[in-house]
Amino acid sequence: MRLTDDGEPSAAAAHKHDFSIMYDQPTPAMYIEAMLALDYREPDYLTEAEADIADFVARHFHGERLTVLDLCSGYGLNAVFLRLGLSGKRLLERVAAALPVDSAVPSRWGPPLRIVGADIARNALLYAEAMRLHDSSIASNLEKTPPTAAEADELADVDLITSTGSLSYISERTIERILAAIPPYRPLLALFWPIVGRDTAAVRSALEAHGLTVRLDPTPRWQRQFADAAERERFLQRYADAGVRTAGTLLDQGVCVAALRAQKSGHALDGTCQCTQHA
Fold first, then answer.
1. b/e string for 145-168 if b means 16 or more Cβ within 10 A?
2. End-to-end alpha carbon distance in the chain
3. What number of other Cβ atoms are within 10 A of residue 71's Cβ?
4. Residue 104 · residue 49 · CB < 8 Å
5. How far is it, in rounded angstroms, from Cα 262 to Cα 52?
6. Which residues pair with 106 in a beta bridge?
7. Treating both helix axes as pointing N-terminal to C-terminal, what angle do 77-84 and 88-96 enclose, rounded to 10 degrees?
8. Distance between CA 198 and CA 194 in Å, rounded?
9. What does pTM read for this prediction?
10. What does the alpha-carbon distance between residue 177 and residue 3 come to, in Å, rounded to a whole number?
11. Helices (H) and strands (E) in the chain, counts
12. How many beta carbons lie within 10 A of that of residue 245, not counting itself?
């Protein structure tokens, strides 16, 4: 879901450098090389959610396999973290190594994982399935069309949604269509890391409308270095227009994300939805 079907970047990602040529190759080699050069740490954010996932599984999960929907999943980076616990440079190198994983083993949270990758980058999805990082894939553009009957059946079993980058490319339309396919009684944990500056109000409203309690932590977390001076200038102008201070912060050095977590489980997350973010 990195691009629209006609190959144009989404409006939400217009200030970012265009890496689209790397997102849908037969192998992730070009993408991994570029991200290593930019000190890319995007999948590492999932490490801060370890406790949330463990608590959710212990309190609310009673099935045989924990079904994860990874939005804008690409080559399966998040799946490597979820299945193997790797992060940082070791994670990127493991994705590029083209070594299939054993997807049937229990996860560190107990039950085996069933990971569904969702992206419009079909080559990337094929790679992730071939490496057994994903068990199945959804390649539809849910921004434009509702899920098919078969895709809705896949979504109906989702327990956990992960997304370390999708909110730069999708809107509340995709979120609404996914949540509509998940039975309302089903416990659900959703973990997003939007780029700092991304207006998440509509996404938060969509989550809350489906009964999830939302918590937003706007503290910047490092994603990667700016790709070039032009990208840095676009980001800094965006922050200046929003009145966000950047001097002496991570925001002046690279692309950063915030953390947005939502849960529907019969009890609220600590804290309540904050109604403002770096906008």
1. eebeeebbebbebbbbbbbbbbbb
2. 23
3. 26
4. no
5. 10
6. 112
7. 110
8. 6
9. 0.89
10. 18
11. 10, 7
12. 11
C-alpha distance from residue 155 to each of 24, 48, 216, 266 (Å): 23, 25, 24, 21
DSSP 268: P
Q: How many residues does the chain have?
A: 279
Residues 6+ apart with CB under 8 A from 7: 20
Yes or no: say if 206 and 179 are a contact pair by the CB < 8 Å rule.
yes
In whole angstroms, how far apart are CA 92 and each of 33, 37, 85, 254, 278?
Answer: 9, 11, 12, 19, 29
Per-residue tokens: 16: 């970012």
DSSP secondary structure, 117-152, as one string: EE-S-HHHHHHHHHTTS-SEEE-S-TTTSPPPHHHH
What's the pLDDT score for residue 263?
96
Q: Which amino acid is at 232?
A: R
Q: How much is the average pLDDT of 221-243?
A: 93
pLDDT digits (tens, 9 = 90+) for 189-198: 999 999 998 8
DSSP state, 106?
Answer: B
What is the residue type of 37?
A: A
Tell me which residue has tokens 């989550």: 207
* Distance of alpha carbon 99 from alpha carbon 95, whole angstroms: 8
Rounded distance between C-alpha atoms, residue 267 and residue 263, angstroms: 8
pLDDT tens digit sequence for 138-186? 999 999 999 999 999 999 999 999 999 889 899 999 999 999 999 999 9
Give the 3-state secondary structure of residue 159: coil
Which residue, 11, 20, 10, 70, is CA-closest to 227?
20
Contact yes or no for 191/52 (Cβ under 8 A): yes
28-54: per-residue pLDDT in tens?
Answer: 999 999 999 999 988 888 888 999 999
The closest of 148, 21, 162 to 83, measured between CA atoms, is 162
The average confidence (pLDDT) of the chain is 88
Query: Which residue shows structure tokens 């922050």?
Result: 239
